[in-house]
């Protein structure tokens, strides 16, 4: 079953998870230490009809840290540690759930989170780590110059940067799924000026190739 395969293979990625440092982006002035977790939890709206915020992601991070307080996902709450995270919005998670359930109907945010959590905490953890690049603060300017770069994630595997567009440069991320559209960055430099920075994406990065 496709859902079970996604869970089984993604869980295996936890074993290889690492927070090995990557080269940090250069900055002209010292960066502040507000964490990405602080940014995410500042939104108190909870599950709603806004597909462009990060309620499902916030709930997923919270669920992992509640079940596994020492999880590497906790780096998102350590503002002194440099990371770059590519964070899927709520619509991205809803699309993922619809895809693995073979339906065109998108679930609501609460149902989407329930489905994601149903994959198991280890699977959720490994998928979250696949969205985190430790040791580097990569802002929009640096990302647009990184075409072809392979970024090592906290899950131990890599994603490839694809900068495209003739007049207006855009960024997509090539993950392990070769049969679905690659996630695109739709919002840059969340938490800019801090050691931890994020870029919003419109699909969930997939650590395996779903048929």
TrEMBL record:
Gene3D superfamilies: FAS1 domain. InterPro entries: FAS1_dom_sf, FAS1_domain. Residues 41-205 form the FAS1 domain. SUPFAM superfamilies: FAS1 domain. It comes from the Bacteria. Pfam families: Fasciclin (PF02469). The keyword Cell wall biogenesis/degradation does not apply. Residues 1-26 form the signal peptide. Keywords: Signal. This is Fasciclin domain-containing protein.
